[in-house]
Amino acid sequence: MKINLNTSNKRETARAISIVEENNSRSAELMKNLFSKVGSAYRVGITGPPGAGKSTVTNQLTKYLRSQNKTVGIIAVDPTSPFTGGALLGDRVRMSEIGNDPGVFIRSMATRGSLGGLSKKAIEAGDVLDAAGYDFVILETVGVGQSELDIANAADTTMVILVPESGDAVQAMKAGLMEIADIFVLNKTDRPGSEQAFAALKTILMMKAHDENSWMPGIIKTVASENKGIAEVYDEIIRHKSFLEQKNLFLHNREVRTRTRIKQIVEEKLKAELWNDSREKSLNSSLEKVVLGNLSPYHLAEEILNSFRSH
Amino acid sequence: MKINLNTSNKRETARAISIVEENNSRSAELMKNLFSKVGSAYRVGITGPPGAGKSTVTNQLTKYLRSQNKTVGIIAVDPTSPFTGGALLGDRVRMSEIGNDPGVFIRSMATRGSLGGLSKKAIEAGDVLDAAGYDFVILETVGVGQSELDIANAADTTMVILVPESGDAVQAMKAGLMEIADIFVLNKTDRPGSEQAFAALKTILMMKAHDENSWMPGIIKTVASENKGIAEVYDEIIRHKSFLEQKNLFLHNREVRTRTRIKQIVEEKLKAELWNDSREKSLNSSLEKVVLGNLSPYHLAEEILNSFRSH
Known about the structure:
Chain A is of the alpha/beta class.
């Protein structure tokens, strides 16, 4: 498989991402061929609750990065419902706005079922964009599941977008978004209640234990639809990047994330070996006994494990 | 370990759940001793976005079940932030309201870190309540992560609570809540916009392909804080239960869920064996090479797998 990746050949990049999406031996081969070219791009994760304006922020930030002469690759992870099937509307609008810029590559990836697999594909697609030479790789995902944790685990800087609706900060806290945010973007601050939301968010952040060696996330106010506050978002990304470099955390954090990722690769392969036809069958044929209380699920699990160990 | 579980001994039940929370060999032993007593309770999962009124619905439904002379065990899964640490406020209020009823057992379980482990513990705590003899076991969780999928996977009937805010139905759809719901509860229908929200929800549901053999989720309107619509929620649970029994799906669904659960038990044990000290060390010592592009993550993963296979 010969793949010649660079920012001036979007078609080849798109083809590589399609191979990644197959998630088979061909994808594995591609990723093995790419790894030595991966690592130069700065990776930004963007997440937040539905309706917070993630796409709009991504859109405007991309335009700003282009004005700084940086190339941008975007992977937008769209959890969609099996009811509707397709990708969400926003993307098509965006495609026409920035997708024609030769320095921007944008690809939307929909779930169609399993979310876990999607994060893996999205992160590998980010690797493809990195290998192709894009200066910034943006991974965007809606913050309603596991995917935003996976995405945060693939980003150098993770931005959480919130809106000043009542309780949004509290909801984000409950959803675990507070823990993954390096930067908060409070979007749609032309709406009523934005000062209170800003104060609430600040209060919650202040409760977090921190010292001079730990990063304190900034809160940037934006009205992304009017392009307000976007330069400040960029400045905050650069401030975070500099902090990581100063504290020798940049490579360290990447190592920590690589560790998680390798563990996932190993575990996925092991699971595939574990659940072969024969063990699937022996599991299925014993389910009734377990449900009727005649066989302990823990005993059955042990039996399956033993069969794997002795194999 | 001698545990004598029944509904008239709350202290013993509480002790058993504390053992489950330890998630160690003692918990495993307890669950092995219990399994033959598990299976009589009807399990209801309750989930939905933060602020939808899950606790209030659970509270009122519990009172209604008590008026029908049914005993109720409740496990409330509270994803909390490491920032604040404690469980959420609502629970304490609730405890005093229904917690003193001898026919009600209520336990709140907080995340404190890993969500995956919590779901397992919550489901096992549900098993404890089942074994203790509670007629209904309610598993309640906020719908913002993986946990609600796990909870749905442990319930005979899963209820999704929504409020008539604009776009709530669409957000739930994005979050995958539509796929797990057997019953929709549209709560706070005294608010403006509730008729439109009802219609929107109905439209989305109608898009789902269905025939006479598939269950069509009902939408029940409630104002839980005023105890309105709760009898109808109960009736809908019973309607779903009857449907499952009529179509021979009751045990079948439990088998499907048991299958998932046993797979999780097996995989968890295998992972614990995989990541022993020596393999953790060899992973850690190679991370820098991977990050700098001198070693392929896929190659390293393969090395670790080989060491496990030959062990």
